[in-house]
Amino acid sequence: xxxxxxxTKKEAEGLxxxxxxxxxxFESENKEKLENLAIMLKRGKSPKYGISEIQIIKSGQAxxxxxxxxxQKHYVEENFILDERKLEKGDILINxxxxxxxxxxxxxxxxxxxxxxxxxxxxRPDRTKILPDFILxxxxxxxxxxxxxxxxGQSGQIELTITTIQNIKIPVPPIxxxxxxxxxxxxxxxxxxxxxxxxxxxxxxxxEVLKRYL
Length: 214
What we know:
It is built from five helices and eleven strands. By secondary structure, the protein is of the alpha+beta class. A hairpin with a 2-residue loop joins strand 4 (62-64) and strand 5 (67-68). The longest helix is centred in the C-terminal third of the chain and has 39 residues, at 175-213.
């Protein structure tokens, strides 16, 4: 089982590297600033918490890529007024403050009514120019730690300003090429997810063996 676990982890890592290689193949493309690829680029706002049906995503809950941690759920007060910052599927959430948190980029694709707090910047892509998944993987290819290094401040109080985010440049191939790459990445992600499920099952399987023979 341990050998299987090691092989599966290596296979998953290899597939992740394949995604990085696909995105790196566009490094020679003309690059555009994010401000030219967005129809909205705004920070969330800090609301009062309550018991409404509007769920708020805090920066620590946006875990990067397509992962959220809703072990604890938070909701805004009932008189909270929604504006253009109500999240839409395809929005890119960029964690914008705090050492170890700033720089993470997560694609929002959830059902329900959601907003984000003021520690997250919402980038709403102009889909006539760029696909949400392509922005996500372009920023992931830069590296979340490298994006964090663009933040200003010190002693844990670092911040990625709107201006800094606006000036990040990523490659922008034609939409048809983007679609092809995103399709390939989705297939790789599907395999990675399956492998990670197998990896997560192994500790329980090992425990069963130990119970049986010890």
